[in-house]
Amino acid sequence: MPRDYAKRVNSKKKNNRKKSAGKRRVKIKIRWKMWLVTLIAITCFAFLLHLLSRHHEVKLKPVVKIKKPVLHKHKAVHFDFYTILKDEKVPVNTAPISNNRYFLQVASFKSNAEADRLKAELALLGFDANIEQITEGGELWSRVSVGPYSTKSAALADKENLVKNNIDSVLKVID
User: 66 — phi, psi (to 5°)?
Assistant: First the structure.
């Protein structure tokens, strides 16, 4: 059987053209994507170089220069009180110490039970309280006091402690 080689070649060329056209499309798609990726990479690299080459201006706060104090040689200071007070006598108050005794009156109650309650409260705070029965205006009163103190400053110190504990008191002097 005779063969027609001309047709055969033509049929192969057609198939080859179809196959090569498909390969070309794939190659064109691949080339386009490669160019895009390359372009992006080059752009990123150029931007990175631009950032690195930029000179960052650092704003510094002005430096305050502290001047060293100038040390002057001072002349020797001469004090006169050494010579003025050399033979001076200082008067000292030699008045006799008073025999006054000080008390802090904390409260006065008509009932002895209330006075005992306050005395117990003061004992819990560390004060030595006394209850004194007095008659005033024909009525019997129970007077609660703290003391005696030999100095006024000791009495005032305890008065401050009473005030810190919200207890009022009155300073009384007994000659």
Answer: -95, 125
